[in-house]
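re: ur question from yesterday

yeah so i grabbed the chain u mentioned. its 93 aa long if i counted rite. heres the sequnce exactly as i have it in my notes:
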Amino acid sequence: MADNSPDDDALARRIAAARDAEASKRDGSKREESQGWSIALEFVGAMLVGGLIGWFIDRQAGTGPWGLIILLLLGFATGLRSVMRQQKKFDGE
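ran it thru and got these structure tokens back, copy pasting raw so excuse formatting
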């Protein structure tokens, strides 16, 4: 019973190959999830920074909501540009 037949060796190789393939799939999905979170945080961060700077300018200059609105839109555009650039980079991989 101690002798392994060729069928057992082939089965063991197939099982090992399947485990390796599954591990690489999980690593790939984690990497994609990480990239997605990175893009989302960068987009939201650009909008928040723009909004906070606009709010600060409005408080100091007394310009009403215009600084906030303009810089929030500028932060949105910057975040969108960054998302598009990152997406092109990830599609190229």
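noticed a couple things. Helices lie at 6-61, 66-92. also The chain has a mean pLDDT of 85.
anyway ttyl
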